[in-house]
Design goal:
The structure is a single chain. The chain has 7 helices and 8 strands. It has helices at about 45-55, 75-95, 105-115, 130-135, 155-175, 195-205, 205-210; strands spanning about 5-10, 15, 25-30, 60-65, 95-100, 120, 140-145, 180-185. The protein is globular and about 45 Å long.
Length: about 210
């Protein structure tokens, strides 16, 4: 079997087999998020992003909706209210690639229009128009392996099949192949998915590129 060299772009940051490890700092603007070290209010986000950049982060991922098990759903308007001030502060003040974690095409369109470089869709393109929004702005797109709920796939065969389908949707919408990043959904996204699933995913990453 011949293994392909995989290279891509998250914003202007080169990622892939021939690149060094890249660090992404995660800022959650939702108090419901499970890891409190990543949580910040709109007025605290810039300071946290600056600290992450000083510590080596080359990408900052900002999200306003928690996907932790049991988190309450919030309206699009509340997501926008949480996200917009923090996103604007970071984009205006730091020279760094910014990714926005959202499942809503309207929020993604607004974020990209403001200057964000990437959309991180943990729903796995549950709303296919998300890909068209990303393509319109020539941005990067992170697609997580999800079918009914964020990160709900456990089998690597299922993950590979779904990510292949969603990648073709994104390409058909006009997203540049080198700007599509595939996320197998490592972590305990649903109650039945335990830490035992992670080693299997990590040990089989090469299959995702074949």
């Amino acid at each position: 079997m011949v293994l392909k060299v995989i290279e891509g772009l998250v914003g202007w940051v080169k990622v892939g087999d021939l690149q060094p490890v890249r660090l992404m700092g995660v800022i959650n603007l939702s108090r419901e998020s499970f890891y409190q070290g990543s949580v910040a209010g709109p007025e605290e986000a810039l300071s946290l992003a600056r600290t992450m950049q000083e510590q080596g982060a080359e990408i900052i991922d900002v999200g306003a909706v928690s996907t932790a098990p049991g988190s309450p759903a919030i309206s699009e308007e509340l997501e926008r209210q949480r996200l917009t001030p923090a996103l604007s502060d970071i984009l205006d003040s730091l020279d760094i690639t910014v990714s926005v974690d959202t499942q809503r095409p309207a929020i993604a369109a607004d974020a990209l229009a403001r200057g964000a470089h990437c959309i991180n869709d943990v729903s796995g393109l549950a709303q296919p128009e998300m890909a068209a929004v990303v393509a319109e702005h020539d941005a990067s797109l992170i697609i997580m392996a999800s079918r009914k709920r964020a990160g709900d796939l456990r089998s690597l065969d299922e993950i590979i099949t779904l990510l292949g389908e969603r990648m073709r949707v994104a390409e058909s919408a006009g997203v540049s192949t080198e700007k599509i990043i595939l996320d197998p959904g490592r972590g305990r996204w649903i109650p039945g998915k335990t830490a035992a699933h992670d080693p299997a995913l990590l040990g089989s990453f090469r299959r995702l590129g074949c």
